[in-house]
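Here is one chain, start to finish.
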Amino acid sequence: MKRSLIVKICTVVVILGIAACMFVIGRGHTVYFDAKSIEYNGETLKPGYRTAIFVNDERVARLEDGDRGMATCIGQNFKFRVEVTPEKGAEAVPYEFSIKLPYNMDGIVLNMPAMIAGAPESVYLSEFVSLAVESSPAEEEIITDEFALGDI
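Its structure:
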């Protein structure tokens, strides 16, 4: 009886340990990259002519002013490379970033002009919030007798 109870307790402890590890290691995030102008310290930070985002040496987004791209990430550490073409015909300027993603956010928005300018995390990182569009209910004609059999 005593041995059986010890085995059950150990099993529960092991399962909880695995669950905790998977929470930290296997947590998935959707990361959105914004190429939108942003105000910081009274200055407007504008994106370059074209911004390319690379994750694991694969291009996941090619952004122009006002665009948004996305990538998925497993775990808390996220490394990516950004190549910014400041103006048409210019040479691309590479940047590398490595950030720790917050546990409490599923959709994370990174503002590229703010990151490139070296702004603090509170400026360039925000949570993605989907804007639900409310529409007023339109007047609809309700048809109760689809085949018009009521006239027979």
